[in-house]
């Protein structure tokens, strides 16, 4: 049965129109790295487990702990009115629609505004990765107020995040997406830093320390490299933005 199992019911009563940061694996593992960083930095509460249709029926365990968990989980920080959707595995795009449908009612009940994250593959340079924002009608002013620029080219968001964004448009729910230039081959902590500092921070008003994210870039790349290789081997499961120029 599709469901979200809430583990900390008292948290629900303390949330007031929270913002949710989505962290499904994708290009450069930008969303995954950013989501993991938020959970760890703010020591967020393990709020719920996601057993929605489309989520692979596997169990995961963490280093140093024998406790088993489902692969997709929700974390909460009531002081910051912040939620994070964390996934330890890829989600297929055709399954992401089931996930979005399952989450949709819960979004409505809590009046959640989701921020989806995606990388757009670009050759790595010394320049700071470019960032821009997109969204559905009704919340676009949030991007302008946060000083987040508009896209400089026509493009699309594919993979599971693209499926979830499509569902948001179809259902008329508010949705924001942040897109950042990312390394197409390796985990990209620098792109995750940019999306946090220049995207998530101004949209939420939450200051997020990122010094350790940059200082630990090598360790993060090594830790996430196996997942990144899996994403490359199954490109259709990888959240990514890409230009549409080739189709025009």
TrEMBL record:
Pfam families: PAC2. Signal peptide: none annotated. Residues 225-248 are annotated as: Disordered. This is 3-isopropylmalate dehydratase.
